[in-house]
Design a protein that fits this description.
This protein is of the alpha+beta class. It has two domains: 112 residues, Beta Barrel (Butyryl-CoA Dehydrogenase, subunit A, domain 2); 315 residues, Butyryl-CoA Dehydrogenase, subunit A, domain 3 (Up-down Bundle), CATH 1.20.140. It is 56% helix and 13% strand. It contains 13 helices and eleven strands. It has a five-stranded mixed barrel. The longest helix has 37 residues. The model has no long low-confidence stretch (mean pLDDT 95). The protein binds flavin-adenine dinucleotide. Flavin-adenine dinucleotide binds next to β2 and α5.
Length: 457
């Protein structure tokens, strides 16, 4: 997909690529694109580029943008390939990671003979592109989750084999035997932190994917609800999974110690590969704007947000008597606090205080991630706790250990319960501080902060 130009990244509407109508109904395309993933390759002969461009005379901004198909080779009437079109790769970026894909600068119409064909209606390029963008944003989220999960699993393997230090019970005994680092409480904490985030994000990503199917399969109000969930969760999953992938892969490096910083171990590569996912398909800052402005504040009657809240409340009700009362209470409180934060943002919008509003958009998106992950963890406990109890007969201590050894299924549910309990007890409390920071610190007048940077115009 050819959207980005040197002077038009997040601000796609600023693009300069031009399309001039020709007598045969095609268009002459001229312009430069950059950062184009797999912009050229010799695996297939033909490549067809979807290219965003403005037809000469159309209005500035995103409303004047149309979408064109530009083939690498022109196609004859009978479908055979003809002359080389005037589209060329002019360079390959030297990137920090993701070396498996060539990120190309592309030139269209250097010799003024690049032919393109309008796809869809004139001026509807952004709307058409957005249909693909929704899917690619989910794919980016899933890729990030894959990176996080792989880094976490490598860290577990390494921690099982690397011998350093002695067991906590003999930590002051110089003659104590060395133990695998997985036995150190701090390493165990890092692994549990990674596991609980990876599994929380996996649940959320699968739930979102299911809603994408449901919005297509259902009808009427049910389809509308599924669509509301999809619209709301796409930016949460894209930005949340990629932000966390950078943190999770960093923690996986930490578990490996110095070896994690060396390229002979895979976690370093996974980390640099994952960083790109915070930037592509709309930076995570742009995802925050999409979520908070378009999907919440400007959505009529905040319908999307109301559907999400309703679903969370249903999960809380259905978990009563199964999940610890304290978890149910905190999730219910968390919804009330989110309402307060959304009200605060709405007031800022109504009063036209856009500086303060926009500085809080990304923090709010990050807090929303915690809210929906808490929902998933609670839901997980609701299912996993009774399953575990049925498999272990409520055994504890040494009895539990012997059941877990003989039953991988019990081990699976035990892992789920431990990870979800860990997340709700140690990560979820941070949500309340995040909201507090928005409601209190979020009132900071940025006009003063602007003077910190003398070059500010
Ligand atoms: C590996 C890789 C592959 C890519 N593949 C493709 C591809 O196949 N096709 C394609 O078209 N593009 C591709 N891109 C480009 C990518 O989509 C852009 O890099 C991205 O949209 C950001 O644009 P930019 O780099 O110009 O950054 P900028 O837009 O300059 O953004 C810089 C920073 O400013 C922030 N910012 C910018 N505007 C605003 C605003 N209005 N409000 C708040 N914050 C803002 C951003 O969030 C970001 O933090 C790829 C990029 C990479 C790194």
């Amino acid at each position: 997909m050819c959207l980005t130009e040197p002077e038009a990244g997040s601000d796609v509407g600023a693009l300069k690529t031009k399309a001039v109508p020709q007598p045969d109904g095609s268009y002459r395309i001229t312009g430069q694109k950059c950062f184009i993933t797999n912009g050229d390759q010799d695996i297939t002969k033909q490549i067809v580029y979807p290219v965003l461009a403005r037809i000469e005379g159309d209005p500035p901004g995103t409303k004047g943008i149309s979408l064109f198909l530009v083939p690498k080779y022109l196609v004859h009437e009978d479908g055979t390939l003809g002359e080389r079109n005037d589209v060329f790769c002019t360079g390959i970026e030297k990137k920090m990671g993701a070396h498996g894909s060539a990120t190309c600068s592309m030139s269209f119409g250097e010799d003024d003979r690049c032919t393109g064909y309008l796809l869809g209606q004139r001026g509807r390029g952004m709307n058409i592109m957005f249909q693909m963008l929704n899917e690619t944003r989910l794919e980016v989220g899933i890729m990030a989750l894959g990176g996080s999960s792989a880094a976490y699993l490598h860290a577990v393997d390494y921690a099982r084999t690397r011998q350093q230090g002695s067991h906590v019970s003999r930590m002051f005994d110089p003659a104590a035997p060395k133990v695998p680092i997985i036995e150190h409480p701090d390493v165990l904490r890092m692994l549990l932190w990674m596991k609980s985030w990876v599994e929380g994000q996996r649940m959320l990503s699968y739930y979102l994917s299911q809603q994408i199917d449901l919005q297509n399969l259902l009808e009427g109000d049910e389809a509308r609800e599924a669509k509301a969930l999809v619209d709301f969760l796409i930016p949460v999953v894209k930005a949340g999974n990629s932000d966390m992938a950078w943190r999770i892969t960093s923690e996986a490096i930490q578990v490996h110690g110095g070896y994690g910083y060396c390229s002979e171990y895979p976690v370093e590569q996974i980390a640099v590969d994952c960083k790109a996912l915070c930037i592509v398909e709309g930076t995570n800052g742009i995802q925050s704007l999409d979520l908070v402005m378009r999907k919440i504040l400007m959505n009529p009657e905040q319908y999307n947000y109301c559907v999400v809240k309703e679903r969370i409340r249903k999960t809380i009700d259905s978990a009563a008597g199964i999940v610890h009362e304290a978890h149910l209470r905190s999730l219910a409180e968390a919804i009330d606090l989110m309402d307060a934060a959304v009200d605060f943002m709405e007031q800022l919008m109504e009063s036209g205080d856009f500086r303060v509003l926009l500085v809080n958009v990304d923090p709010l998106r990050r807090a929303i991630l915690y809210l929906v992950i808490a929902w998933m963890q609670l839901w997980c406990l609701k299912i996993a706790k009774p399953k575990l109890a049925a498999l272990t007969g409520g055994a504890t201590g040494a009895d539990l250990e012997s059941v877990l050894e003989g039953s991988p299924e019990a081990g699976f549910y035990h892992g789920k319960v431990c990870a979800s309990e860990f997340w709700l007890a140690t990560e979820f409390p941070k949500y309340f501080g995040k909201i507090e920071a928005i409601l209190q610190g979020g009132r900071m007048d940025l006009r003063q902060a602007e003077t910190v940077f003398p070059a500010f115009s």
